[in-house]
């Protein structure tokens, strides 16, 4: 593996090209020039989720486009897209792939500051039941808490990894957790502590029981009446910052806020009706506070700060559904305890007032005077099960970060509608905060958004590792021309995530590489070649989506794609094949390694982890072709590794049958007859053989193809079909 560079900076100059030239002994032919696509006009589609329920609280399922009127900044817009979405329909998976904005997203926000410990325990239990029993496979859920000491903390980004979400809620308050945090906040199980099913039983070895959890709450909850106003101000500030982060995520984000609310007297001496008047005045004044403070006991600046935060959270399409976890209070003399301070029924009602304002100003639901917290969660799932996506193209395409107001009306009588009240125009990436940059990538990871602002191809395969941990090597190929046409220095952030079929994050890698290009006479060679990057996932057997994202750290341009792969259980003894691999040395390409097996860091530090480079033939490492581009009539070499081949009892050799075919883009299959073995199969382990073939595709016209290999172990009567993409030029 020493022939693969593991430096994370690339300096392209004459010496490098001569050093890389002839690096590999296997000859393959140069690539053709690849030019990035250019678009002169950018078309921006605005997508607005619309929720509509009748008087009984049931979602409307037969809305027609002509019954909806949409305005932006007072100008009526033509609705070009009108899609009904049902979260529990069999088609929901395909719908959200086409329209990521259609996916349901819930942020469970548990308030540790403005709530009593016993009620927080109850909210925690309701959240665990929500994750375990109520959400659907395509729903995304995030978990956050708010405390006086820590402020607003996001413990889990939006994900459908129920195992991870349950673990997050189950271990709130624990100091140590048996999971590693990745660069974007996702967490991963330790290789030595794979959990089979943390949701199977509550209160396991890593879980916290309700009594223990309640004892831990004072560590995250430390407030006195003296600093109450300052704490309310901090809470409002965190809500404002949350809106900025969530605005980077497409679609509606339902915030479910479990709290008893802060005393509205801090904001204004008036009741809920007074708060409503203030909110209307604030909207009419476009954020200018009123000078009339007579008979008001609250903080005017703080009040305006609250309304501004709620406007921003609403514009990010984040309705706040408030759940008063205090339960049903019926006795006029009832007194509650708030951090040792008595709260009478009047102050309790003022807390409910603020919860009502949070929901009303953001388009959310209010749930109060209830004892069973599963009821509001079930209701939210019901009213959000059916909704609509409205799409339109605004004529004004400016990107100045200004606010645009949205109003939607319907001719349908006796219904209640909820929608995004407006949005802020896109702003330059240079103005993104670190949190916004992080959340931008989270959306690409969770929603699997494909884009090619940065162009690359990818290739993944599977190899047996050790002790149940398998190797999934990953190669990315970047055409070099896209780097020459812009800046001379590029900083590329590369992220890879291995996500199992239930949505569980199993492994990740992350590196930042720097490309520095110096003009010289060999620059033309870079146009014909480019950069290849290698990294490695370590996962147990199973089916995976390998999500790959590359971002320019300076401009925010992104390239992203997903590969699917099935990692066999090699120890089970069944036939397994690595898949056909084109041997393509690519001497003009620059090879970068994401980690050094001799000096692993981070997640790859461990005892007996299989970190060695897997692509080795006859004792020599080689570089696999990544969607290889083959010249017409040129011979190619194809490598294959087969596992668990059964040996003949007398000859001690396997008996195999193989056939090849290619499939064009029209789906037509052509049998490939001119394939021959270049050498005798090499046994590299018990029942493990390397095979090397030679063929050419001279009879095929130019274009993309799929190579299919049918591999049969005749002695075991087992057959595997494996595939690889290639292009003929």
Unreliable residue runs: 1-41, 174-178, 202-206, 219-223, 282-297, 331-342
What is the CATH homologous superfamily assignment of the largest domain?
A: Immunoglobulins
- Mean residue pLDDT: 79
DSSP E strands, number: 42
Total DSSP helices: 13
Topology-level CATH name of the largest domain: Immunoglobulin-like
Strand content: 25-35%
| Domain count | 3
> From the helix content, strand content and strand pairing, which structural class follows?
alpha+beta
- What is the CA-atom radius of gyration, in angstroms? 29 Å
What is the topology, as strand order, of the major beta sheet?
Answer: 1-25-24-27-28-20
Description:
By secondary structure, the protein is an alpha+beta fold. It folds into three domains: 9-36 and 433-728, Immunoglobulin-like, CATH 2.60.40.10; 46-102 and 388-420, no CATH class; 105-189 and 205-364, Rossmann fold (3-Layer(aba) Sandwich). Helix content is 21%, strand content 34%. The chain has 13 helices and 42 strands. The strands form ten sheets. It has a six-stranded mixed β-sheet, sandwiched between helices. The protein has a six-stranded mixed β-sheet with strand order 8-7-6-11-12-15, sandwiched between helices. The protein is elongated, with a radius of gyration of 29 Å. Mean pLDDT is 79; it is low at 1-41, 174-178, 202-206, 219-223, 282-297 and 331-342.
Keywords:
disordered N terminus; elongated; Immunoglobulin-like; single chain; 21% helix; 3 domains; Rossmann fold; six-stranded mixed beta sheet; 729 residues
């Amino acid at each position: 593996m020493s022939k693969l560079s593991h430096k994370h900076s690339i300096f392209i100059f004459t010496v490098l090209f001569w050093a890389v030239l002839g690096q590999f002994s296997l000859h393959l032919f140069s690539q053709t020039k690849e030019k990035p696509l250019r678009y002169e006009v950018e078309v921006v589609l605005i997508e607005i989720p619309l929720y509509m329920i009748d008087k009984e609280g049931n979602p409307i399922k037969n809305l027609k486009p002509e019954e909806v009127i949409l305005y932006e900044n007072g100008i009526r817009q033509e609705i070009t897209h009108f899609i009904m979405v049902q979260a529990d329909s069999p088609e929901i998976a395909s719908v959200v792939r086409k329209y990521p904005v259609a996916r349901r997203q819930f942020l469970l926000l548990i308030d540790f500051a403005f709530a009593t410990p016993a009620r927080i325990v109850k909210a925690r239990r309701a959240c665990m039941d929500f994750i375990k029993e109520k959400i659907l496979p395509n729903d995304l859920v995030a978990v956050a808490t708010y405390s006086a000491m820590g402020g607003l903390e996001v413990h889990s980004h939006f994900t459908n990894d129920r195992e991870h979400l349950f673990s997050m809620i189950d271990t709130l308050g624990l100091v140590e957790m048996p999971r590693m945090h990745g660069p974007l906040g996702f967490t991963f199980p330790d290789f030595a502590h794979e959990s089979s099913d943390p949701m199977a039983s509550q209160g396991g070895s890593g879980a916290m029981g309700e009594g223990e959890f309640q004892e831990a709450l004072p560590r995250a909850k430390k407030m006195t009446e003296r600093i109450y106003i300052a704490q309310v101000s901090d809470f409002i500030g965190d809500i404002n910052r949350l809106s900025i982060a969530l605005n980077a995520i497409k679609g509606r984000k339902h915030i479910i806020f479990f709290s008893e609310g802060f005393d509205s007297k801090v904001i204004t001496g008036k009741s809920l009706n007074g708060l409503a008047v203030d909110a209307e005045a604030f909207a009419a004044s476009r954020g200018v506070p009123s000078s009339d403070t007579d008979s008001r006991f609250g903080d005017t600046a703080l009040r305006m700060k609250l309304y501004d935060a709620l406007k921003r959270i609403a514009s990010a399409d984040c309705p706040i559904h408030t759940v008063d976890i205090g339960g049903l209070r019926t006795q006029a003399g009832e007194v509650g305890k708030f951090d040792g301070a008595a709260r009478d029924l009047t102050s309790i009602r003022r807390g409910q007032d603020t919860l009502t304002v949070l929901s009303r100003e953001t388009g959310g639901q209010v749930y109060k005077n209830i004892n069973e917290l599963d009821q509001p969660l079930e209701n939210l799932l019901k009213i959000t099960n059916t909704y609509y996506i409205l799409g339109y193209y605004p004529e004004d395409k400016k990107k100045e970060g200004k606010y645009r107001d949205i109003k939607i009306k319907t001719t349908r009588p006796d219904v209640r509608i909820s929608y995004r009240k407006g949005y802020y125009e896109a702003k330059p990436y240079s103005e993104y905060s670190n949190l916004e940059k992080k959340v931008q990538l989270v959306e690409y990871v969770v929603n699997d958004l494909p884009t090619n602002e940065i162009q690359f191809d990818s290739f993944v395969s599977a190899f047996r590792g050790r002790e149940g941990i398998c190797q999934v090597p990953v190669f990315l190929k970047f055409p070099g021309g896209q780097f020459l046409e812009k800046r001379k220095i590029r900083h590329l952030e590369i992220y890879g995530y291995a996500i199992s079929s239930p949505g569980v994050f199993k492994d990740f890698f992350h590196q930042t590489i720097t490309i520095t290009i110096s003009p010289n006479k060999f620059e033309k060679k870079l146009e014909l070649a480019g950069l290849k990057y290698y990294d490695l996932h370590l996962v147990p057997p199973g089916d995976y989506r390998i999500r790959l994202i590359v971002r320019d750290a300076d401009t925010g341009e992104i390239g992203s794609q997903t590969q699917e792969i099935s990692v066999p259980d090699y120890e089970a003894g069944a036939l397994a094949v690595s898949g056909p691999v084109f041997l393509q040395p690519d001497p003009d390409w620059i090879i970068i390694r994401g980690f050094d097996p001799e000096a692993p860091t981070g997640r790859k530090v461990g005892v007996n982890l299989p970190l060695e480079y897997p692509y080795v033939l006859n004792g020599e490492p080689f570089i696999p072709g990544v969607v290889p581009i083959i010249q017409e009539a040129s011979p190619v070499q194809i490598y294959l590794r087969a596992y668990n081949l059964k040996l003949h009892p007398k000859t001690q050799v396997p008996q195999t049958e193989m056939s090849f075919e290619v499939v064009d883009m029209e789906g037509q299959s052509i049998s490939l007859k001119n394939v021959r073995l270049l050498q005798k199969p090499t046994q590299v382990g018990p029942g493990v053989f390397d095979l090397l073939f030679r063929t050419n595709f001279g009879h095929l016209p130019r274009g993309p193809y799929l190579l299919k290999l049918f591999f049969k172990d005749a002695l075991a009567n087992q057959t595997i079909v494996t595939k690889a993409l290639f292009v003929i030029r």
